[in-house]
Amino acid sequence: MKFTGKVHKFGNNIDTDVIIPARYLNSSDPAELALHCLEDLDKEFAQKVKPGDIIVAEKNFGCGSSREHAPIAIMAAGVSCVIAHSFARIFYRNSINTGLPIFESAAASEALKNGDEIEVELETGLIKNIKTGAQYKATAFPGFMQDIISQGGLINYVKNRG
Fold this sequence. Notes:
Layout: E1 2-9, H1 16-19, H2 30-35, H3 45-48, E2 54-57, H4 69-76, E3 81-84, H5 89-98, E4 102-104, H6 106-111, E5 117-121, E6 126-129, E7 135-137, H7 143-150, H8 154-160
Parallel strand pairs: 1-2, 2-3, 3-4
Antiparallel strand pairs: 1-5, 5-6, 6-7
């Protein structure tokens, strides 16, 4: 599975309260959450992001409160995956559970810029800047986690195991 899209770059310590502000947690509707994704950092993020685009961030992405609303809002906004130097552990697990692919790569986090067009391979963790040809390696997921992601999250994975 490959993801191709434009980079939306963010910095360090992007917490779940910024990804989806607490004032919107009265809704569990993904479409409603998407409208407010990252709005406290970039008021026009929900309007700018296109299906397939990719968030790239620095260290500790998804820190803060343990809420599944954050990866749900990101996916519902159209983001295909997130690349960061590092992720908060609870966000990491919530992302897998909801089917949001995330990739840890210090080199990609540092080198990629806002607006770059990139391609990411789920199976290998290879990240490629389409314009420059530069490649970066992210930690690839074990097979069962790739299955969880490709089936849209843990609930679908368990249902399909039959």
